[in-house]
From TrEMBL:
InterPro entries the record matches: Desiccation-related_membrane, YtxH
Basic and acidic residues composition-biased segments: 120-132
Tagged with keyword Transferase: no
Name recorded for this polypeptide: General stress protein
Region (Disordered): 98-132
Pfam families membership: YtxH
Keywords of this entry: Membrane, Transmembrane, Transmembrane helix
Signal peptide (from-to): none
Membrane spanning residue stretches: 9-28
Amino acid sequence: MAEMNTKDFLIGTLIGGIVGASTALLLAPKSGKELRHDISEQAQAAKEKTEQLTATAYEKGNNFAHYAKEKSNNIAKTVSEQSSQVVDKVKEVASNVKGQAQSVKEDASDLASELTNEVDQAKEEISNTVKKEVDDIHSKISEEVESRN
């Protein structure tokens, strides 16, 4: 919520500054040539500020995307490692109970498959969630850039 208030404040400040500067220019007693020159300067200053804000938004968006990608890769790697450990432990248990009844061996194999499937599903869900969040961040940044242009 604090980010939204800051963003709204900055947008309001920028718009207010432009409106105030334009009003001051239009109401000031100047010749047409001076007025056009002043308006041109103010327009150029507004353009430069907009370009700076756009560059900042793109940079922050790229930073957010890079951060989200790193985190999703770390999560995927952790999930993969943990699933491998679980599968290895299940296989170890299955090999230790080799002398036991065939039904116990089949149950352990089924359990390993189920655990692998559940871990794969969890990994995919996490990956999809992170991708969606990255896409949302890009969308918000694009909307903000477009609204400023």
